[in-house]
Write a structure and sequence with these properties.
Length: 371
């Protein structure tokens, strides 16, 4: 269903769309699918290769527990985590690709002095040393308290590739390697976007440009890049942990093929995506402390990505003060987790429907008021 407000000024000589999405990461691509299902013509525009920024660099932990999630974000996080099996099944079915969704769970290692500060439900979920050794024999003996969480993980690179293929299968148009420089207005309403090379017409534009969202008009959102360095090791399936392991020093995310991701830093470094050898080596040493067999593991790859941070570390979701201009950005470390629910609630808003979860706490207006 198309929103009643959409009235295209169609010119047979100029192609137009119902919606232009700026940003081809997991958020923008998932939203493009949700809108195509509602019958809307969608164009996704990205400054580079689609899916190759924060989504490509992410670890893929679908961590929605109270340990990790701000209270105001919990309804979105929980709803999105619950959507994931169906979301991935549909994407894999349409694309013919696998996203490596794993349901083995997560082991969280916590300093015993910090256990008393955990939310009450988790204080009673501690594993004994024997239980930890049985559940995850790859992990070294530790003085930390261990908690088991029923959480999933996914391979963000595989998932984003599959979502992109599914979007193209559903006739979502894409334009890569051409940065959007402005959101164009006429009579104070959106009419499209201009890029370095050309312009595109649509009465609805959605800013999903991640860390770069604040560089695109017609409103300046206070997003910033938050750098995260990671590495990937392989020591064989026999040596790899079966579960995601999160410790104060590092976290480990196993893949089904025996690779294990080690992450991650949180750095205010601007748009610098360079890795620092000393940092990568420190992270590798931290991983070896958690899993001693990693001492002989081969480092396959290291990289850095730029998460989209905001002043209050919460996403920016919904309509702006400019008719036809929407935003879905600022997901910080939760972009992969929140992709399914973001696509659903933004599609609801754009089509004039009431979203199942209130977006009041994430409104773009909160920063306009602050300004």
């Amino acid at each position: 269903m198309r929103p009643a407000a959409v009235s295209l000024f169609y010119n047979a000589a100029v192609k137009t769309w119902d919606v232009i999405i700026v940003g081809g990461g997991i958020i923008g691509l998932s939203l493009s699918l949700a809108l195509r299902k509602r019958g809307m013509r969608v164009l996704v525009v990205d400054k580079g290769e689609l899916g190759r920024e924060a989504s490509y660099a992410a670890g893929g932990m679908l961590a929605d527990s109270l340990i990790d999630t701000p209270g105001v974000l919990q309804p979105l996080a929980t709803a999105s985590a619950q959507m994931y099996p169906e979301f991935v099944h549909e994407i894999e079915d349409e694309s013919g690709l696998k996203a490596d969704l794993r349901s083995q769970g997560t082991i969280v290692l916590v300093d015993p002095r910090d256990v008393q500060h955990l939310p009450a439900p988790y204080r009673s979920m501690q594993l004994s040393a024997e239980e930890l050794a049985s559940l995850e024999p790859a992990v070294a003996r530790t003085n930390h308290s261990a908690i088991f969480l029923e959480e999933r993980s996914v391979d963000p690179r595989a998932l984003t590739t599959a979502v992109l293929k599914a979007a193209k299968h559903r006739a979502v148009d894409t334009s890569a390697g051409d940065a959007v420089v402005s959101v164009d207005l006429a009579d104070s309403r959106v009419v499209g976007v201009s890029t370095v090379k050309t312009s595109f017409l649509a009465p609805i534009v959605i800013n999903c440009a991640g860390a770069w969202s604040g560089q695109i008009g017609a409103h300046r959102f206070p997003t910033r890049p938050v750098k995260g360095q990671m590495l990937c090791v392989t020591a064989g399936k026999e040596s790899a942990p079966r579960h995601v392991v999160r410790a104060p020093e590092a976290y480990l995310i196993p893949r089904s093929d025996g690779r294990v991701l080690v992450g991650s830093t949180v750095e205010e470094a601007g748009f610098d995506k360079r890795t620092v050898p000393a940092t990568i080596q420190r992270m590798h040493r931290d991983a070896v402390k958690l899993v001693p067999k990693f001492a002989s593991a081969q480092i396959l790859e290291d990289w850095a990505g730029l998460r989209p941070g905001t002043a209050d570390n919460l996403p920016i979701l919904g309509a702006t003060a400019t008719p036809g201009y929407y935003v879905a950005t600022g997901h910080f470390r939760d972009g992969i987790l929140l992709a399914p629910i973001t696509a659903r609630v933004l599609a609801d808003v754009i089509c004039g429907e009431e979203p199942q979860i209130s977006l009041a706490a994430f409104s773009p207006a909160r920063f306009q008021r602050a300004a």
